[in-house]
Design a protein that fits this description.
homodimer; alpha/beta; Rossmann fold; 2 domains; seven-stranded mixed sheet; five-stranded parallel sheet; 18 helices; 41% helix; elongated
Chain lengths: 466, 466
């Protein structure tokens, strides 16, 4: 039997109310996106057209000849009650309302939204939105959204990252930036807007059971049921990372005007997040970077008797890393003498290997490929080493395919590696591409790598005891 | 009369000891770099060659027929004492030792380094380094360094940013990343390595008097004279930003092995930095971003009775920004009613303008160009607004030249603007290029923009009272 939310994610037939032929309009993009990915039957509805993008267009819902389970609503707010009634008659089970003009637009809109929810529930229909961008699915390729860019077709790779975003534009422009910047595999990106009915709790319950979801990142302006959120987080070993905005008084006020959210639900605070094993973040790329790390790193078991080893091209960067690890109270590895001896063989005689491992003199003699793979191998075998940060000077004199070898070591030893590189942009990009294809995520700042180890340690130690 | 350090920065004649024809060797890159930029006479010295890069090569210093004021030393460490003596006889006043093998390599090297300094001082010669990469100058185009990339020729634009870096590789690979990533105008980038003689204090004293230096950023592993540093900082209105590594016990140990630095000079601590008006940072791009902001923003007078206004494409991003401003205790603007009314005219009727200004509905109706310029204009005229953060969705439907108009407003009102954008990379890059050419710096995260306002406020309020 279908789960209620399956009517959104796996519908048998989708109608688009407000589909348009006007290139550049949102009604056009929704239709084009749905047609491009969704494999079921699509029914544009708009009395102005007989055909849109080469498929029949219907004057109203009633004229659709076949079964429809999901309706995407993109006409003015005031028609919603009428449409819910007619949808019920048609057998529609799920409506994604992407239009604005509801609770976020004032009292009248709030009343309309409330009435819509009551009516829908009485008729067995679930509502998604309003004031949202729908969702994208990396596996089914359903893009039930008006995101303008066609880039999702090539840039959205299937994977295990699911995002729940209570902000339309953050799931559009920002998502494009993220997909272009990072190699992140997407399960689902859900924009829930005013979340009048389907909310973050419903989705979290669904996604902790969802086979394609491995890690969940949320941008939330309010939390409808704090207790339930904590219970869900406690019940799952999937990492949950939350950026909860409206933390400040001014932020709360802003959240109220944005998605009519009462951010001031103070029941759920940082302490409760922590207790439930939820990783809390405060900025946007921070959210993405930490979710990305959890997507790459699955079986880490941090051991406070071991520590993080640092392989670097720069003594200075190594010291900065050490300081930052100390700031976060993360143990720093003290490699075994045997490990340092292996590393020493790559060094010129005037320099003795010590941790953090400043490898540049070794690289000058032996090349990046040999040095990074040899040293990574030695550290993987060292039982005092828990995980590794690799800092590279990506030079054109090196062949970035050595990352494949390091990736194999990571798979074998289960010791995670995070990487950071400097150098010419185009070569850094090659390094990043090779490393991420081999399971080693790259990040933009040393501090971010360190912060990620903190988050990983927090999550996996927490989960280790369940 | 020449300042002692002028013999490094404006020498009459430069000799390169250890110049090489072997492409890929550092001795080759030093020679090529010097020849490419320096406008005086260059004398490669190496008994193996009669000619290098088409200019005469000399077997020894004594054979150079003309005046030489600066020598770049790139032969093994053990020859240093002999070379200092012979340099003195030749009238050389400044030696940049780029070779390693001195104090950082153990006791013997430390003794050699100490002896070299004593000898040099007795003969009226200043030593730079050793174990360093020399320096680059954006104005004179002197690149007395073995940085491998030729990219500095096109990417290093003259400007007022001066960096002092106590780490060779950080002034090479990292510098390339920085120059490619940001539109930063460079005065000088100095790699001081073991700083056996010329140190950060000498350079700071020189640069606070240097007409082309407007802001100074330092990566330091030790501080040779804390009191003097504070005195210099207190004496100048030029912003000084310092990343002091070796803050932690483990970091101190690492610093000792890297540049033989005793980072544990605890006399200079965060508190003292603060009192002297020094901005302290802990990460590498953080250093660059804050220095960049100071390079763009010169005449800001933060007023705690006013506040930062937020213009955004996303209500969510606006709330996150508000929270982060609150985290840093930075006043958030409360625009005047008249300002909100001006903005309201761009909005659809269902949405009322409130701060933070979520402009997307206005942009959908009027386009980015009109909305961003109109709203920025209104905020510039609002006496409750001190400065602005602009957050954009960079779309291909907009013409990024509108940044020029906003740049003109900034020049007139002296209210600084920081910007952040999402969207397709290529369009974000265009936005960034146009904005930075118009005097508006872009940054990669909202949190960074907020942190920069903190640093700006700290510096300019401090300085305001001098």
């Amino acid at each position: 039997m279908k789960h209620e939310l399956d009517y959104f994610f796996h519908p048998d037939g989708v109608a688009i109310l407000g589909a348009s032929e006007i290139v550049g309009s949102d009604g056009f993009y929704i239709l084009r996106n749905v047609c491009a990915g969704y494999t079921g039957k699509v029914y544009p509805v708009n009395p102005k057209y007989q055909e849109l993008l080469g498929i029949p267009c219907y004057p109203d819902i009633e004229s659709i000849p076949d079964k429809v389970e999901c309706l995407i609503y993109f006409i003015p707010a005031r028609f919603i009650l009428d449409i819910i009634r007619r949808s019920a008659a048609k057998g529609i089970k799920a409506i994604i309302i992407e239009s604005a003009g509801f609770a976020e637009a004032g009292k009248e809109g709030a009343k309309l939204q409330k009435d819509a929810v009551e009516l829908a529930h009485s008729l067995g229909i679930r509502l998604w939105g309003p004031n949202c961008m729908g969702y994208l699915d990396g596996h089914t390729r359903n893009v039930f959204s008006f995101v303008h860019s066609e880039k999702w077709k090539t840039m959205m790779h299937p994977g295990d990252v699911t995002l729940i975003v209570q902000s339309g534009m953050l799931s559009a422009g920002f998502l494009m930036s993220v997909l272009e910047r990072d190699t992140i595999g997407i399960s689902k990106v859900c924009s829930i807007g005013n979340k009048c009915d389907v909310n973050e709790i419903d989705l979290l319950e669904y996604f902790v059971q969802d086979d394609t979801t491995g890690v969940i990142g949320c941008y939330l302006e309010s939390i409808v049921d704090g207790k339930k959120l904590l219970k869900i987080a406690q019940s799952t070993s999937k990492p949950i990372v939350i950026l909860k905005s409206g933390r400040s008084e001014q932020g709360k006020k802003a959240a109220l005007s944005h998605t009519a959210s009462l951010a001031g639900n103070t029941m759920v605070v940082s302490g409760a997040f922590k207790q439930a094993g939820i990783v809390q973040v405060v900025d946007l790329y921070e959210l993405i970077d930490i979710v990305k790390a959890f997507s790459y790193i699955k079986n880490y078991r941090p051991d406070k008797n071991k520590g993080i080893a640092v392989m670097t091209f720069s003594g200075g960067a190594g010291i900065v890393t050490t300081d930052l690890l100390a700031d976060y109270a993360i143990p720093i590895a003290q490699p075994q003498e045997a490990t340092l001896q292996k590393v020493q063989q790559l060094f010129p005689s005037w320099m003795s290997a010590s941790h953090p491992l400043d490898l540049w003199p070794a690289i000058e003699q032996n090349g990046s490929e040999k040095v990074y793979t040899t040293v990574a191998g030695a550290l993987m075998e060292d039982e005092r080493v828990d995980a590794i940060i690799i800092e590279c000077f990506a030079t054109q004199h090196s062949d970035p395919s050595f990352w494949g070898e390091i990736g194999n070591m990571v798979k074998q030893s289960q010791k995670p590696v995070l990487a950071w590189a400097v150098g010419e942009k185009i070569i850094v990009e090659q390094y990043k591409k090779h490393a991420e294809a081999s399971g080693i995520p790259f990040f933009g700042e040393i501090g971010r790598c360190v912060q990620i180890f903190k988050a990983l340690g927090f999550h996996f130690n927490k989960r280790g005891s369940i």
